[in-house]
Design goal:
- The protein is of the alpha+beta class.
- It is 38% helix and 22% strand.
- The strands form four sheets. The chain has an eight-stranded mixed sheet, with helices on both faces.
- β1 and β2 form a beta hairpin.
- It is elongated and about 95 Å long.
- It starts with 6 loop residues before the first helix and ends in a 19-residue tail after the last helix.
- The N terminus is likely disordered.
Length: 598
């Protein structure tokens, strides 16, 4: 529908309302000049001021045939009017509140003219990306497809006004397209309304044919325009794409508007999670949701968030893993289950840690950690193809200064062997662990290698794990399965079938960080109780990350759980890897941030 704001309605508006708009726009221009705005960026603001002054100068019922002379007269009077109304630039002018008030005045004027500035619905027929695809290689410079009629909708990013001609850049979800808007084509009233009321940041709808301008820019050659949503706040003028990191995260909606690549990350994330679910569903895994509120935290070593249920008079925690409930489903008779869910851990924040994050945990009856390694490779490669493309080139991609290759098979190396590579002066040979004095020797060697907090460790397995995390993990750039962990750091994994003191566990590492974790799951309820009790003793001694004894899970295990392989993958870190994102906050739409005091 064409804008219905015509001369008859517009000229009946109160003169003082238009005067207020003129004054506010003049103040805005002064502020922008004081801030050093360049002439090109200032031009749309000046054109808008001239359009408002032209309306102010037009008496009720006057003809619009002499618009050029009115604009010329207004232009000549510009200096004298500005001098007469000059106000000192105050500190308040630096606030966006002035800009917001100007735009809200326009909302008021539109409604008084009988036009709704916040429409209920609109029906675009195409998108910017579709138009560019359809007209690729078509239309010579200056040529119009006179048989076309398209309707587009989106947000105005930029405006360029040239008297009776205007060019807007419109952005929709798919990309950007230029709008060519002419007074002779839209009509006098509609074009005047466009110049007076449309600002950068507004959402508008446009109907028109498709034309390539004389300079070769594909454009919607507008016949009609309609205000869909009047933005009360402007887009950032001087932030050059909103580069302040904290503002980007706290004002993610604005970040997505001015930095289109941000939206592409979240599109990729959606494709990744969809591909993961499709693959697991195709393998007969069943997704079942498990509780977020737990009476006993478990399934990981992590400090939980605590809460309280009023009506049940219960202390509860937010889940730190989905593991134990999913295993109970295996006990209950489901052979393949998984859950993509939010996890909450009351721990530190870094570029790779966020208090709430997303993981997928899956469990398969009658499988072990070898099966899980194969499945993990397959899942990650499928997700890479979904994020980047379906050909083999999607398995080789940049991350920071590195080139990552997911081409299979990936390296598989035991923790003992990889620590030997980075700490050649000492051998954690499992055959020597029971020898008197070996623990002392291992701690001395680790301290000499610069591994911190060795004095707090009481077993060789803990020292080995600390050496791996400090000396090896940061160097694992290409995807690597580190297998066979000490039993002390793996309370839920099955003992290794041939290596005493170790469990059948692997972690996947890439770009120096953990990506996935897997066990041949412990199914012996007696041994599981012993490990829970050892964890509970650590918790009683002050370890906030140790878990307690989960009697409900033990009861389920006593009922009998089949041999089971389990796998957990951090979705956020996987998305970071596949989208070349340096921080976990870059792949979480609304990451938790510390609130600034007011």
């Amino acid at each position: 529908m064409t804008s219905t704001i015509g001369n008859n309605n517009s000229n009946n508006l109160l003169q003082e309302d238009i005067e207020r708009l003129v004054s506010a726009k003049g103040d805005e221009i002064k502020r922008l000049k004081a801030e050093g705005i360049d002439k090109i960026a200032l031009a749309p603001h000046v054109e808008e001021l001239l359009a408002l002054k032209a309306r102010l100068a037009t008496p009720a019922g006057a003809s619009n045939n002499s618009e050029k002379s009115i604009e010329d007269t207004s232009s000549k009077k510009n200096k004298s009017n500005e001098n007469a109304n000059k106000k000192p630039i105050s500190a308040e002018d630096e606030s966006p509140e002035i800009l917001k008030q100007t735009r809200l005045e326009k909302v008021k004027l539109m409604r008084e003219a009988g036009v709704e500035p916040y429409e209920y619905a609109y029906s675009p027929t195409t998108t910017a990306a579709q138009l560019k695809k359809v007209y690729e290689g078509r239309l010579q410079d200056g040529e119009e497809d006179i048989n076309s009629e398209e309707v587009v909708a989106g947000r105005i990013l930029t405006k360029r006004l040239f008297g009776k001609l205007a060019f807007f850049t419109l952005q929709d979800e798919s990309g950007k397209i230029q709008l060519q808007l002419e007074k002779n084509r839209l009509g006098d009233a509609s074009f005047k309304d466009l110049k007076a009321w449309a600002d950068a940041g507004d959402i508008i709808g446009v109907k028109g044919s498709i034309r390539r301008t004389d300079k070769g820019e594909l454009s919607v050659y507008a016949k009609e325009w309609k205000m869909l949503t009047k933005a009360a706040l402007p887009l950032p003028d001087k932030w050059h794409g909103l580069v302040d990191i904290k503002k980007r995260y706290s004002m993610r909606h604005l970040d997505m508007i001015v930095n289109p690549e941000v939206r592409s990350v979240f599109r990729a994330r959606a494709r990744i999670t969809s591909a993961l679910r499709r693959q697991l569903d195709s393998l007969d895994f069943l997704e079942i949701e498990t509780p977020v509120l737990h009476a006993q935290p478990g399934g990981a070593e992590a400090k939980p968030f605590e809460t309280f249920h009023n009506s049940m008079d219960m202390n509860l925690t937010l889940r730190i893993a989905t593991e134990l409930h999913l295993k109970r489903l295996i006990v209950g008779g489901f052979n393949r289950v998984y859950e993509v869910g939010r996890i909450f851990r009351n721990e530190g924040i870094s570029t790779r840690h966020n208090p709430e994050f997303t993981s997928v945990e899956l469990y398969q009856a009658f499988a072990d950690y070898n099966d899980m390694m194969n499945l993990c490779e397959s899942i990650v490669c499928s997700c890479a193809e979904a994020a980047v493309g379906s050909d083999t080139s999607s398995l080789v991609f940049p991350y920071g200064n590195h080139t990552i290759s997911l081409q299979r098979p990936w390296r598989r190396v035991s923790m003992v062997d990889i620590v030997k590579e980075y700490m050649p002066s000492f051998d954690f040979d499992p055959n020597n662990w029971s020898n008197p004095g070996f623990l002392h020797s291992a701690k001395d060697a680790a301290s000499a290698a610069g591994v911190p907090k060795i004095d707090t460790m009481s077993t060789v397995g803990e020292v080995l794990n600390a050496c791996f995390e400090e000396l090896c993990e940061p160097h694992l750039i290409q995807p690597t399965f580190v297998i066979d962990y000490p039993v002390e750091v793996s309370p839920l994994a099955k003992p290794h079938r041939s290596k005493p003191g170790f469990v059948e566990r692997f972690e996947l590492f890439a770009v120096g960080r953990e990506m996935a974790n897997s066990f041949s799951e412990l199914t012996d309820p007696v041994e599981q109780r012993e490990r829970f009790e050892a964890q509970a003793a650590k918790k009683a001694a002050g370890d906030e990350e140790a878990c307690g004894v989960d009697e409900e899970f033990l009861q389920a295990l006593e009922q009998g759980m089949p041999p089971t392989g389990g796998l957990g993958i951090g979705i956020d870190r996987l998305v970071m890897l596949l989208t070349n994102s340096p921080s976990i906050k870059d792949v979480i739409a609304f990451p938790l941030l510390k609130t600034d005091p007011y």
